[in-house]
Amino acid sequence: MHTFNEQKVAQLNELLKNSPKIVIVAHKSPDGDSIGSSIGLYHYLKKKGFTVEICHPDPSPSFLHWIYGVEEIVNYEDSSSQVQEIISNSDVVFCLDFNDFSRVGNGIKPLLQESTAKKIMIDHHLNPSDEFDLQFSEIESCSTAQLIYDLIDALGDIDLLDENIGEPLYCGIMTDSGSFRFPSTTPHTHEVIAGLMKAGVKNHKVHENVFDTNTLDRLRLRGYAISEKLEILDEYQTAIISLSKADLKKFNYVKGDTEGLVNVALSISGIKKSIFLKEGDGIIKISFRSKGSDNPVNVMANEYFQGGGHANASGGMWSGSLEEAIQKVKKVIPEFCK
Hints:
By secondary structure, the chain is of the alpha/beta class. The chain folds into two domains: 6-210, Alpha-Beta Complex (inorganic pyrophosphatase (n-terminal core)); 218-336, Diaminopimelate Epimerase, Chain A, domain 1 (Roll). It contains 13 helices and twelve strands. Helix 4 links the parallel strand 4 (92-96) and strand 5. Helix 2 packs parallel to helix 5 and helix 6 (163-176) packs across helix 8 (203-211). The radius of gyration is 20 Å and the shape is globular. The two termini are 37 Å apart. The model has no long low-confidence stretch (mean pLDDT 95).
């Protein structure tokens, strides 16, 4: 809670007092935390009487479409002109779950740079940039959704919590904490979860909607990835899964179908690092996961794959072929397994 000190909260209140138009923006390739924190904050601000809109770089994955309010998100990929108009006319932009304008993609990035609106960052990643007017940065937090709860608390509005605000926040915390098993999960995390449940959130509903709504194609893709595309580097206690565009097409891939796949490989006994590579349009997206406080993957992601993130959970990319990316991973892995 030290992040939301009295001085910064007063600054935020002053900004909101003179802000008839508020926009919420989150990072490209949305996940449970970026979607959950965005919609939770949206419902809270609407309840306070503000005019609020959500603009994201690209569409939400299908496994999050159950969240009430997801239909309110306008994404740049499908509605670029509308997003441009909304951001250009805004007074305040909440920047959630990212700490550098580069994380919102080439479409929204220049809109933020050109906008005269005040930018308020709420995020839990390392090394925030100085592009924001007001920063709430707490790298110890398991998720941005948890920080939104803390913000509501700091503003003295905890009694405004309800199921519509709490459900997406619970989803964000649950997914970004690995269902409360990552080291970033703290006693405070469980206190927040208790508060959300007291506000009416049904924990089983959130879990079932996220994890128990698989399509047959998704399950077959995951089975194929594990049986045919999983490689174990025993010497380095590392698992690698790679999927090409042809692999994805074979199983009628839709956004979100590979969510959590990198964690499946990490669950193998004896494995301490897991790396998942997925071929996209012109780039290879890479997810890194690891076990142990002395086993970070964010340095490797940053130094070799244009990425970064948390010590045990990071992302990156490769601007070449899938085969080149796999070979690069294998080449640099020894540096980080000493």
